[in-house]
Inverse folding.
């Protein structure tokens, strides 16, 4: 079934769709990163043990890497503007968005682990971490994958 669009139109539509998706992710990631950057300046930070400090630095690093991934397509576009590299741009942005979503799920789950570890202990924190990763995996990967397969089979 033809959509009536040529390759350039398809790439432009895909680029626009990716940008909309990335904008949603980008805002949340930037807020999370900003919040995490303020944590060491709170009085409670001094009470963290070595494991919790390492975990904090890990989730902060995850948030910064995620920020880099979701902002990268804008940087790619700025550098490649008018160089007729739309196909590469869409492909690279898609990869950044996919890896960025994985990093969002790991980072948010890691933040939840840290909070649970501080408030109620390591075992509940590990359960919360695993449950949150499972939640994101089902919601963001399994559900659309299964829906896509069932719609494709019709």
């Amino acid at each position: 079934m033809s959509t009536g669009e040529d390759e350039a139109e398809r790439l432009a539509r895909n680029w626009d769709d990716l940008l909309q998706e990335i904008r949603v992710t980008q805002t949340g990631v930037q807020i999370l990163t900003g919040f995490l950057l303020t944590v060491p300046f709170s009085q409670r930070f001094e009470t963290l043990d070595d494991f919790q400090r390492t975990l904090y630095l890990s989730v902060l690093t995850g948030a910064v890497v995620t920020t880099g991934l979701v902002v990268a397509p804008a940087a790619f576009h700025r550098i490649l503007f008018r160089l007729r590299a739309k196909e590469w741009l869409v492909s690279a942005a898609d990869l950044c968005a996919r890896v960025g979503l994985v990093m969002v799920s790991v980072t948010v789950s890691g933040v939840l682990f840290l909070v649970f570890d501080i408030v109620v202990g390591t075992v509940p924190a590990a359960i919360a971490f695993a449950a949150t990763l499972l939640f994101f995996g089902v919601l963001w990967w399994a559900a659309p994958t299964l829906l896509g397969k069932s719609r494709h089979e019709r």
Observations:
- The radius of gyration is 19 Å.
- The longest helix spans residues 86-119.
